[in-house]
Amino acid sequence: MATRKSSSKSKQKTPKAAELKPKASVLRPSKTEKPLNEYLALSDLKLRSIRMGRPAKKSEVLRAGIAALSKMSDAEFFEALDAIPSLKTGRPKEAKKATVEKTSVSKKN
Questions:
Q1: C-alpha to C-alpha distances, 23 to 10, 18, 66, nearest whole angstrom
Q2: Domain of 79?
């Protein structure tokens, strides 16, 4: 009787073409803080799209910006990043203390 040679590799399926396609993008809401000048720039870009006869939502303007950034060379992308200031993440400590004080005062009443 012939014996089968067991391969050292576990049985792995080769991915099919359908499995290699990127999955549908998941929409994630963004509630990030933006500096006032960037908020106004978004507003101006939306108005500009209206004047051109192609109204765009804020998300479309942001996605178009991401597409434009992804087409840039590394040097251009580096310049674009250097052109904007870094933002501090998190909440200011004073706001956190004020919230704690408000809740403790309301609990006393």
A1: 26, 10, 19
A2: 34-84
